[in-house]
Amino acid sequence: MKNDISVLIAGGGPAGIATALSLVNRGIACMIVEPEMPADYKVGETIPPNAKPMLIRSGIDQLLADPAHLPCYGNSFIWGSDIPAETHFFTQTYQQGWHIDRTFFERQLRRHALSKGVAWLQGERVIHCEKQENGWEVSLQGDGNSRSITCDFLVDATGRSCRIARLLGLQRTRLDALTGISAMMTTEKNIQPYHTYIEATVNGWWYAAPLSDKKLSVAFMTDADLMDKQMQQPGYFLENAAETSLIGSLLEGRLQTENIQINLHPASTSLLRQRFGDSWLAVGDAAYAFDPLSSYGIVSALEGGYYAGHAIADALSGESDALPAYDGIISQAFHIYLKMHAQQYQLERRWEASGFWQRRQQPFVDDLKTVAPFSQRFPTI
Q1: What distance in Å separates the CA atoms of residue 143 and residue 138, rounded to the nearest whole number?
Q2: Pairwise CA distance, residues 264 & 233, whole Å
Q3: Are both 210 and 88 inside the same structural domain?
Q4: Per residue in 365-375, pLDDT tens?
Q5: What percentage of residues in the chain have a pLDDT greater than 70?
Q6: Would you tell me which of 163, 189, 298, 318 could form a disulfide with 158, CB atoms 3.0–4.6 Å apart?
Q7: Given 216, 237, 267, which residue is the final one in a domain?
Q8: CA–CA separation, 205 vs 196, rounded Å?
Q9: How many whole angstroms separate alpha carbon 112 and alpha carbon 134?
C-alpha cells in the first residue's frame, strides 16, 4: 500500500522549510507538521554577507528585499579590550548582511513554501513514530484529536527539543549552559549605523541589533546557573544594559520604555550524537545547535535544509551513501564552528576570576566523529 506522503517534516521553522523547498525542487512531495504558529516575538538575528550564495541557490534571497529587514554593514564591539572597535563588510565579496525581523521572515518562508506546493498541517504534533517495513507510521495529535499518517521518510526539524530523535530513544549532548535573556524595544528614532553590536562584560556578553520600525533587539547571554533572576524584570534588565558602554550608548535618550517584554531562551552549543538513521534525519538545531555569537544559527538551518532535501531525494532513489554524505557536510561545519568558538572566547581575558569566562578558556573537546568523509556529491554553496 502506498504511503500518505513521501516525506513528513516535523517542524516548520527555517530548517524544516528549507528542507521542504529543496525536496519540492527535486520533485518530492512533502508535508510539514507544525504544532503552533511562530511566536509574535523572536530575537532579531543577523545574517552575514557570505550567506548570499546559499540564499540565491535556495531561491529565497528576494525575501530579504522586503523593508522589514534592514541592511547590516558590519560589527561594532567591545571584546578583549576596553577600546571599542569595528569591522566592516565592504572588504568582503558580498558587502552587505541583513538584520532580519525573525518572526516576519519565518512567515515569509511559510508563504513561499506554500506557494511552491509544500503541504502544511498546522496545530498538530508528532506524539509517536514507528518504523514499518515500507516506511513510517506517525501518530499526530492536535485539538484533542489524533490521527495516523504514513510516510517514506521522516525529518526531525523540531529544534533543540529534537522531538523525533527523543521519540526514537536518542539523547542530546549539551556542551555548555549558555542562556539568553532578551527584549524587543522601541526607540525614538532609527539607530545607525546599521551594525551588529556586541559587548563583553564580567558575567557574559550583550548583543544588540537595530530592526525596522525603530525596533531594537537586545539580549544578554550568560550561563543558566549564573543568571541573575532579577534580569527578567524589565526595569532591572534596562538598568544593567544602561551600565554597559557600547550597548548603553544605543539606549541613552532613544528608548521608549513602555511594554517591554523579557524572554528567556536556551542558547547552548548542543548536538545529537546520531543525526540520521534508517529513512530519517535531523536538520537545523535538532542536529547541531550553535552559540549565537557565531551567527551560524539561521544560516546553518537554511543551508542544512538545502543539503538535507538533496540527501533525502537521493536516499529515496536508492543511493546508500546519501545520508552519510549529508551528515559529513553538517558535521564538518560543526567542527569548523568549534574552532572558531574557542578562538573567539579566548580573546577575552579581562576577567580571569569570572566563572563564565573561566569555563570558556578551555575549548570543547572535539571528539566528535564525522560519520562519513566530506562528499562533493551535493552542489557546493
Answers
A1: 17
A2: 11
A3: yes
A4: 655 543 333 23
A5: 92
A6: 163
A7: 267
A8: 13
A9: 31
